[in-house]
């Protein structure tokens, strides 16, 4: 067990974050100590909370109540009705969590969903999302998004861009950095001594020797061959339509794909409720549930906490791996 608890940031208080934080604590309790970083007034009425002054207090408090490290917001939280007045508070909570984990007061940061439009309109948020802001706070210029579950780990090399822009964005430099960051993270954060990485082709049937595209022949295959010589265990490029069935998945520890849907369709098919968003390449551990604010069901009690629970559990497992501990 790690000595420091996990910081769970509040995210958008008008979304499902506050209620799934409570339900995650009800499931995990003292087994996995974490603290909610946000305004206790935004939590569902009747929530058993223990306000703490220091993250270390969360370890004992979590046995009987949800530990809360207070961060006051200017406005109340009304489910499904985000208030721009709270936007800066959401941003400040993320920065505060990063400061705590960098100081060693938290073992990891787990972030509940934000609404980028609210942050941009309410506080001039200058980043496309959580990941880019976390990278800026950490002072790193390249991070990688991984979606992970017990069944599959996937990494999209290009992420939130139009499919028509993928070919230009998919440079050898970008793919190489993605492969190295993935390789190093599998060792450091997942405890895999000799990672095996499957590399998807860009084109149908991985180009079929140039008949369906030449990106594999001209860029992906030469790069993979060079990186194998530098010590990476790479499989492929593989045809994306045959690399995600059970027998194929048994051959690798993570799959690096070329674009967003190529990676996310298989994992959301296999692990829709318990997939976890992990940011690789940061100097600290960050996980997040793989869903958004879900304004349509906020406050109804229908939100599924499974992905948040999985994100907290994965954060703990990664922290143990970094510490060289097993459990």
Offer a quick outline of the entry.
Homodimer. It catalyses: 4-(phosphooxy)-L-threonine + NAD(+) = 3-amino-2-oxopropyl phosphate + CO2 + NADH. With 327 residues, this protein is an alpha/beta fold.
Please tell me about this protein's structure.
The protein is α/β, with parallel strands linked by helices. The protein has two domains: 1-144 and 274-327, Isopropylmalate Dehydrogenase, CATH 3.40.718.10; 151-270, Isopropylmalate Dehydrogenase (3-Layer(aba) Sandwich), CATH 3.40.718.10. It contains eleven helices and twelve strands. The protein has a twelve-stranded mixed beta sheet, sandwiched between helices. Strand 11 and strand 12 form a beta hairpin. The model has no long low-confidence stretch (mean pLDDT 95). This is 4-hydroxythreonine-4-phosphate dehydrogenase.
């Amino acid at each position: 067990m790690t000595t420091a608890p996990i910081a769970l940031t509040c995210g958008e208080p008008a979304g499902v974050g506050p209620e799934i934080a409570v339900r995650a604590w009800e499931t995990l309790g003292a087994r996995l100590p974490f603290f909610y970083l946000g305004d206790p007034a935004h939590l569902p009425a009747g929530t058993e909370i223990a306000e703490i002054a220091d993250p270390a207090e969360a370890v004992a408090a979590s046995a009987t109540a949800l530990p809360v490290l207070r961060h006051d917001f200017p406005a109340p939280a009304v489910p499904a009705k985000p208030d721009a007045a709270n936007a800066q508070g959401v941003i400040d909570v993320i920065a505060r969590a990063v400061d705590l984990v960098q100081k060693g007061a938290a073992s990891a940061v787990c972030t509940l969903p934000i609404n980028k439009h609210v942050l941009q309109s309410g506080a001039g948020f200058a980043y496309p999302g959580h990941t880019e802001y976390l990278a800026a706070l950490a002072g790193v210029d390249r991070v990688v998004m991984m979606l992970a579950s017990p069944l599959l780990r996937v990494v999209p090399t290009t992420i939130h861009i139009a499919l028509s822009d993928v070919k230009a964005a998919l440079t050898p430099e970008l793919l190489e950095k993605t492969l190295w960051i993935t390789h190093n993270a599998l060792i450091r954060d997942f405890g895999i001594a000799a990672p095996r990485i499957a590399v998807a082709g860009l084109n149908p049937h991985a180009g079929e020797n140039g008949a369906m595209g030449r990106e594999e022949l001209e860029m992906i295959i030469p790069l993979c061959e060079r990186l194998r010589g530098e010590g990476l265990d790479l499989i492929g490029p593989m045809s994306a339509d045959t690399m995600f069935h059970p027998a194929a998945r048994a051959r690798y520890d993570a799959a690096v794909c070329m674009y967003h849907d190529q990676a996310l369709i298989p994992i959301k098919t296999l692990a829709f409720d318990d997939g976890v968003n992990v940011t690789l390449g940061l100097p600290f551990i960050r996980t997040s549930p793989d869903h958004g604010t879900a304004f349509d069901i906020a406050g109804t009690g229908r939100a599924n906490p499974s992905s948040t629970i999985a994100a907290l559990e994965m954060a703990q497992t990664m922290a143990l791996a970094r510490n060289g501990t097993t459990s």
